[in-house]
Structure formats: C-alpha cells, structure tokens
Amino acid sequence: MARSQQNDDDYVEYVTARRMALHRMAFALCGDGHRADDLVQQTMTTLYLKWHKLRDVTHLDRYVHSMLLRNYLHERRTGWLSRVWLVGNPPEREAAGGDDVELRDELRIALSRVPPRQRAVLVLRFTCDLPVAEVAEILNISEGTVKSQTAHGLAALRRLLGAPPALSAARPGASVHGATRRGN
C-alpha cells in the first residue's frame, strides 16, 4: 500500500510541476482554452493509468508531449467541434497591453489555420522551445521532416499574417537574416 501511495505522490508532483507548460502547449495547438483543458486532462488521465509502468522511461517529458500531440491529432480527426458546443462568455481577463493582445490574437488565429502537423512542429519548436532532434523523436519523424515542416509552417504563418514579401518568399540562397550565402 505504501508503494502505491508513493506512486500517487510522484504522479501528483509531476503533474503539478508540468501542468501549466502542458496547458500552454495544448492552447498553442488548438487555440481554445477549454479544448486545451480537455487535452491536458485527457493526457494526464492516460498518464495516470500508465504511471506505474513508467519508471523506466528515460525522457518522461518527451513521452508526455507525444501523448498530448497524439490526443490533439486524434481530436482533429474525430471532430471535437462537431460534438461539443460550449456556450457562454469567456471569463473576464485583464488585458496586458493593447498591441500585445492584438498581436497575440492575430498570431493565435493564424496558427489555427496552419495544417495540424506543421502547427505541432511550430508549437514544439517555438512554444515549448525544443530542439529539432527532440521534436523529431516526439513526433516520430526525421529531423529533416521537422526542418521542412518548420519552414512550411513559418511560410504559411507569414502568408496568413501578411508579412512583407522579403520575409514570406525568401530568395534561394538567402539566410533567415537576409544575407546571401556564398557557395552551395
């Protein structure tokens, strides 16, 4: 019985420490606070059911990120929006700053229009600040695919946000900063 209590305590400690980061990730993926709550809850429930088997998992955070992404992608395929309609007004929040809020909303809306796989890569790379190799492992794809999905996703965001042509259609051989590379 003491071992079971220790497992539960370890689980509670892990979830308490990671809940906000997982919610940020889920919100960045789906763009809706309620859906993000559902994704995190579903992921944490699955994690709890498997917790006793996870002692040997080397990178638990990667495993949990993978679970959350799989739940998100499954939700996209099964049509959560066609089954659940929430009514009511969102809770009142104090605005941080007019320009920041507008920019964040524009970015959130644009990100919601990026294809799900590209969105997943962008969220893991830029919201979760994970390196290419870790994103590849979480999504079970090659590092090259992560890089190309990142490039395609960023290009889609630039188009959706109406970025200047210099940013949205980089010249062949141009770096991210606009300087031309020499050679290959």
TrEMBL record:
InterPro entries: RNA_pol_sigma-70-like, RNA_pol_sigma-70_dom, RNA_pol_sigma-E_actinobac, RNA_pol_sigma70_r2, RNA_pol_sigma70_r4_t2, RNA_pol_sigma_r2, RNA_pol_sigma_r3/r4-like, WH-like_DNA-bd_sf. GO terms for biological process: DNA-templated transcription initiation. It holds the Pfam family Sigma70_r4_2. The keyword Transcription regulation applies. Residues 20-78 form the RNA polymerase sigma-70 region domain. Keywords: DNA-binding, Sigma factor, Transcription, Transcription regulation. GO terms for molecular function: DNA binding; sigma factor activity. Residues 106-157 form the RNA polymerase sigma factor 70 region 4 type domain. Belongs to the sigma-70 factor family. ECF subfamily. PANTHER family: ECF RNA POLYMERASE SIGMA FACTOR SIGM (PTHR43133:SF50), RNA POLYMERASE ECF-TYPE SIGMA FACTO (PTHR43133). NCBIfam families: SigE-fam_strep (TIGR02983), sigma70-ECF (TIGR02937). This is RNA polymerase sigma24 factor. It comes from Rugosimonospora africana.
